[in-house]
Amino acid sequence: MQQTKYIFVTGGVTSSLGKGIIAASLAKLLQGKGYSVTIQKLDPYLNVDPGTLNPYEHGECYVTNDGAETDLDLGHYERFLDTPTSQANNVTTGRIYQSVIDKERKGEYLGKTVQIIPHITDEIKERIQILGKTGDYDIVITEIGGTIGDIESLPYIEAVRQILWELGHENALVIHLTLLPYLSTTGELKTKPTQHSVKMLMQSGVSPDVLVCRTEHHITDEIRNKLALFCNVEKPAIIESIDAETIYDVPGLMLQEGLDLVVLKKLKLAFEKESNLDKWNDFLYKFKNPKSEIKIGLIGKYVELHDAYKSIVESTIHAGAANEVKVNIEWIHSEDLEVKNIPTILKELDGVIVAPGFGSRGIEGKIKAVQYARENKIPFLGICLGMQMAVIEYARNVLGYIDANSTEMDESTKHPVIDIMDSQKEVTEKGGTMRLGSWKCKLKPNSIVSKAYGKKVIAERHRHRYEFNNKYLGDLEKAGMMATGINPKTKLVEIIEVINHPWFVGVQYHPEYKSTVLNPHPLFISFIRAALEQSLSNGD
Ligand code: GLN
Questions:
Q1: Which of 66, 107, 390, 506 lies in the 20 to 30 Å Cα band around 22?
Q2: What is the DSSP string of 117-176?
Q3: 308 Cα distance to chain centroid
Q4: For residues 440 and 380, what is the distance between their CA atoms, to the nearest angstrom?
Q5: Which residues are bridge partners to 92 per DSSP?
Q6: 188-189 and 210-215 beta bridge pairing
Q7: Tens of pLDDT along 468-481?
């Protein structure tokens, strides 16, 4: 078996340069040349996983098939590569320390003083190489979160230095992503912050093999020469990464700059093969040449931070391209719906998505949005909390159970149509204890969902503690809210639909985690198609 090759992506100058997108784009190009690639994210914070983080802190929490609550960059990896990730693809400093301290308590260090070097760095190295050792990948790309110079990143950089030394630069290399700021007064791109960032990296004993430079303007030959000379990088390995119209353009831009070639040559891997990106380019063409436009309202309580709903937005983009329609997202704050006039905010919409969430802030606004979509026959997709709100709305306004609620919001409600799962009642710790990961669901024939999926049994990813309360199933079904997806083992209701409505679906799971560029999610495709039909009937 060939040695797995390791690529490390570090960031310099500032945060938010898009290391995840560069890593995913490079992986896409390498995949296009026939290599099997996976991407891993190392996060330098002390939370064991991002599951306990408020979305305002860190954006969406992305969930994998095996139930890991992970950084949103893993969503990009899956969307670009169309291959699933797992717990091993996201490691935080908290998890590293937790496992070292657990080992210390078990006496596994045999009386040694436990230290950052070698114990923490060894644990990091092991976590990096775990994916390579599966034998499933030719190349593992590891993105190091944070910015060079951060105190928190130091053990990671030391671990990278050791791997480079152990495996040699034919088997492991470093890509440093940096920013070339543009001074508009003099009309110049400046290289000094990059030089300093590279120097800082070198002080830790790591010398970058490739520099990817984020820039608003094309970089000249002179700048390439300067960067090569002062940063100790060969000129072809100076890669321009100009601001793109969409993240999905980045693989093509990296191809033009030859990032894949530079990397493959350095790693002594065959590079001659033409890159096959046909399906990717088909998507891009459709995405950029829509035949019409629709407006989808995304109702949530974190709408100020769009990253909190990253996977939902990307799913609408994939499904929009599949339907050759441009999806314009109207960001609607659920709390606004509690105080403002509902029709003025919602009447122009061709479709409504009520987003996932936790806690009671804004839920009455979400319930009003569901009611408006249901009564006005606007295509509706409720995701997780959004599905739960649809059940509450129906119980209140159709069945007349006016205090119907979820016990998450009101423990003493007379009509707990959404209730905590039995298995959750004893749970006291918040981290990693929800119903997580992939679960099977059986679809009812002739339902909207069975037509959308074209399957009898599906598997979708979950992240919640509360559930549809089966005590109310009979009442709701009699009144026209049907359970069209059931967990075959536990009999839990996973999907509800409303009859006499063109497209009204609530799902207890998160379809958005499984939509990729090459495989847009069938439920989003069907929802966007229904919204498109709605917009045509509106005469838009
Ligand atoms: N708060 C709800 C629950 O825990 C919904 C969670 C979600 O939307 N992801 O069941």
A1: 66
A2: IIIIHHHHHHHHHHHHHTS--SEEEEEE-S-TT-GGGHHHHHHHHHHHHHH-TTTEEEEE
A3: 9
A4: 23
A5: 43
A6: unpaired
A7: 999 999 999 999 99
- The DSSP bridge partners found for residue 481 are 498
Ligand 1 touching residue 384 (CB < 6 A): yes
Rg (CA), the chain: 25
Sheet holding 416-420, edge to edge: 405-406, 416-420, 466-468
CB-CB contact of 325 with 528 (8 Å): yes
Q: Of 407, 404, 382, which Cα lies nearest the Cα of 495?
A: 382
The verdict on the CB of residue 301 being under 6 Å from ligand 1 is no
Check: CB of residue 209 under 8 Å from CB of residue 241: no
**Distance (Å) of CA 375 to CA 379, 406, 451, 472:** 11, 22, 23, 21
Largest Cα–Cα separation, the chain: 76
Does residue 529 line the site of ligand 1, with CB under 6 A?
A: no
Q: How far apart are CA 242 and CA 108, in angstroms?
A: 49
Indicate whether 445 pLDDT > 80: yes
Which among 183, 148, 177 is positioned nearest to 240, based on CA atoms?
Answer: 177
Q: Whose CA is nearest to atom 1 of ligand 1?
A: 358
CB 43 within 8 A of CB 68: no
Q: Which residues are catalytic?
A: 384, 510, 512
Against a cut of 0.90, is the pTM above it? Answer: yes
Q: Whose Cα sits closest to atom 8 in ligand 1?
A: 356
| CA–CA separation, 231 and 196 (whole Å) | 9
The answer, yes or no, to whether residue 539 has pLDDT greater than 70, is no
User: Helix (H, G, I), strand (E, B), or coil: what is residue 177?
Assistant: strand
- Measured distance CA(217)–CA(281) in Å, rounded: 24
